[in-house]
Amino acid sequence: MSDKTNNAPAVADALNALLADSFALYLKTKNYHWHVQGPRFRELHLLFDEQAAQIFATTDLIAERVRKNGAATLRSIGDVGRRASIRDDDSAGADAEAMIRALAGDNKTLLGQLKEVKAAAEADGDIATSGLVDGWVDETQQRIWFLEATLGY
Ligand SMILES: [Fe+2]
């Protein structure tokens, strides 16, 4: 059996985990876009919306990389819930700083998922997946930078 056959499920598994966390982070960021309150409302409402749109834009590309590798991808919100490691925040009245801290941490979790996809893709010689991940890493690092700069560190 070739290395490609051995490693392909690892790439698909890593992509599906990344996809689940991308949907979880998308909805969590939108949740904060909708519910943030306080004197910085407009700034944060807009920042969270920009970040949510950027995350959502990656989801179709991630899912289609899985299909191009011949594997199945997510089928439902239930699939997202079973696979995601980023936790929901169903609390009411979270303050703005807590939202920013939560999103910075969750984007770091996503960065870890991206590095797992990169490693699996490199091991498989899957240069298309590996190349796509580079841009998503840059976007995720930018989101983390903006969030942490907003906190002042
Ligand atoms: Fe909106």
From TrEMBL:
Organism: Sphingopyxis italica
Gene Ontology MF terms in the entry: DNA binding; ferric iron binding; oxidoreductase activity, acting on metal ions
InterPro entries in the record: DPS_DNA-bd (IPR002177), DPS_DNA-bd_CS (IPR023188), Ferritin-like (IPR012347), Ferritin-like_SF (IPR009078), Ferritin_DPS_dom (IPR008331)
Keyword hit for DNA-binding: yes
All copies of domain Ferritin/DPS, residue ranges: 13-152
Name of the molecule in the record: Starvation-inducible DNA-binding protein
Keyword terms: DNA-binding
Homology family: Belongs to the Dps family.
Entry annotated with the keyword DNA-binding: yes
Domain of life from the UniProt record: Bacteria
Pfam families named among the record's database cross-references: Ferritin
